[in-house]
Amino acid sequence: MVYRRSQEEMMGLILGFARRDARIRALYLNGLRADPAARRDDFQDYDIVYAVSATRPFIDDQSWLAGFGDVLIQQQPDRSVLFDGCDWEERYGFLVLFADGNRIDFSLQSLSYSLKTYGEDSQTVPLLDKDGLLPAIPAASDRAHHVKPPTAEAFRDCCNEFWWVATYIAKGLWRREVLYAMDHMNLYVRPMLLKMLDWYAGSQTGYTMSTGKCGKHLRRYLPQDMWQALLRTYAPAREEELWAALFAMTELFAGVSARVAQSSGFRLNTQEAQNVTSYLRRVQKDWQNKLA
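Above: the chain's sequence. Below: its structure in token form.
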């Protein structure tokens, strides 16, 4: 078994490298490891920003990475043709997973870029400032990631998008185009459901919490029956199960949107939901008759 280095060891490496290298003028930590209230586990990344006199030397000669350990795999998204690029003179990223399971996301940033963006992430802790350039910022917390209350327009459009694209899922299932149906379920309809659940969770807590990336913390804020209802919306790539998941989604969305509308004082277009639900049932019946 590979020995996993502790947080103290990792931070010692990160800070020690910055202190020794004159090209690095400041260092700060972003993300969950910067938030004292965040739950700790071994899979949390070290989101490190090195503010440097020039980014190119670190890009052109990457031997410095070896000082942090044996690399299992790395990615340089700013170099990849699959992602939008950036100005390498301003910033450049190295995402590195080491053999012991520790991961560091290095962001090399020019001094001007760092000073312009420093503190935008509320989960930020300064670790080193050789020239006294970093301005004072509030104590680190997840406040920038808290669920925001919806506007009446955002609530209306979320509902409309959910019910509109739900019809595409039914169309795909009727045609037996499972991949088409699943993509519309997971890429378009599910995000609206999760957004509505975020708003519900926020309304129950005074919008003082974050549900995390991909809604990973939703379970903490939903009643058990609602959480179980959400789990029923996930289905394998089989038509019968996808129909069941679709109707689980519509039932859950209808109930949660009604609660959010009530707590926020918004008008809920119940006719839209009723019309689409009836339509979905008709398409499902046609699909069943076609298979009979």
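The two ends are 56 Å apart (CA to CA).
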